[in-house]
Amino acid sequence: MRGSYVLLMKLNEDADIKIGALGTIHFRKGCYAYVGSAMNGIEKRVERHMKKEKKKRWHIDYFLEKAKIVKVFYKESIEKEECKLAGLFIKNAAYVKNFGASDCRCNSHLFYSECSILERIAMEAGMKML
Fold it and tell me: What mean pLDDT, rounded, does the chain reach?
C-alpha cells in the first residue's frame, strides 16, 4: 500500500532537540502531527518510524527520540500528496519551520495543536486510521 501518512505524536514535556541540519529546536509539550509519503509502502515506513534503534535519516527520526507515536493515519494514492496534506494542516495548526520539508517548497511537515484538532484535520482529509 503506497500513499501518504500522518503520525500523531505526543511529547510529554518541553524539550530542546537537535534536528539534524536544522539545529536545536525548542518543542513545547503536547501533540504533533507529521505528514509524510511512502511510495514504496506505508506499512514499512511506519514500522521504521516505530523502531527505537535506527539510523537517523530524516528530521522526524530525531524528533521521535523524545516523542511517542499515538496514532497513525493513512491515505492510499499513486501520487505523493504530502504537500497537499501539509497545506491543510498549516491552515489550522502551528508549525515548526522547515521541518521535514527540505525536498519541497512547504513551510513544514510538522504541526502542533491539540490532539483532537490534528486528528480532525487528518480525518477531514479522507485519511483512515492504521
Answer: 96
